Amino acid sequence: MRCAERARRGWPWKGGTVTPERELALFDLDFTLVPFDSGMQWVRFLMAGGMLEAGFDDAYLALCRRYVAGEGDAAAPHRFMLGSLARLRADELPALQRRFAATLADAVPKAAHALVAGHRTAGHVCCIVTATTRAIAAPFAGLFGIEHLIASEAQRDSGGRHTGEISGELCHGVAKVRRVAGWLQSRGEDWYDYPRTTFYSDSSSDLPLLSAVSHPVAIRPDETLRRHAAQQGWPVFDDLQALHAVRARS
What we know:
Blueprint: H1 3-9, E1 12-13, E2 16-17, E3 23-27, H2 38-48, H3 56-68, H4 75-86, H5 93-104, H6 110-121, E4 125-133, H7 134-144, E5 148-156, E6 162-167, H8 174-186, E7 196-201, H9 207-212, E8 215-219, H10 223-232, E9 236-237, H11 240-249
Parallel strand pairs: 3-4, 3-7, 4-5, 7-8, 8-9
Antiparallel strand pairs: 1-2, 5-6
Helix pairs in contact: 2-3, 3-4, 5-7, 6-11
C-alpha cells in the first residue's frame, strides 16, 4: 500500500505511529508557484543583458512545444537551457542569480507568496520539487523563503563551470518520487514521518508524486491532470488566487 494511504490511516511505522503535527508541503515551480516557465524567464533575462543571442528564446520554446506535443524528449529543453549556463564562468553565476532574483519580485503572484507563507507560518517543512535546473530554480526558492529545493542537477567540470549536460536523471515524472524519498532519507526521515503530505502541481507528468502524497492539489492543470483529478476527487484550482480565496473563507 502506498505511503499516502498508510499516512491517511495513521498506520504504525518504525514501531510507533506517525506524529500528527508534522506536515510536508511540496511545490512544483513552473505554472504552479509561478504562472510562467522559469527557464524562459532566465533566458530572457540573459538576452536582455546581452549574454545570449537573439533567437535563443525561440529555439527553447520550440523544444518545449515539441515535448508538449509528444514529439520530443522531456530532457531536451533542459539540456538546451544548460547551454546558457555553460557560457558563463563559475564566478559569474552567483551575481547573475542575485540580479535575476531581483527581476522576479513583480512577476510572482501575491497568492503564491501567501500559499507558501501559510505553510511556513504553520511550521510545515516546505520544498520545491522541479525539473528546472538548480541554478535557475534557486533564486525562486530564495524569493519564497523556501529552504529546501529538489531540482535537476547540472554537470560541472573540475573548475565548477557548467558543461551543458544534466548530472544524473532529470527531476521529472517518477524521478521526482525517487528524489523526494532520497532527500527525506538524507534527513534521517521517510514518508511515514509525515502524516500529511501535500503536493501542488499543474502537470500530468507529476502524477507519480501527486499519487504518492496524502493531499494532492492540482493548480491550473493540463487536460490529463484535470481529468484524473476529477476522477480521484482531488481539489482543482484554475489559479492560486482561487485557492487563496477558498482558504481565506475556511
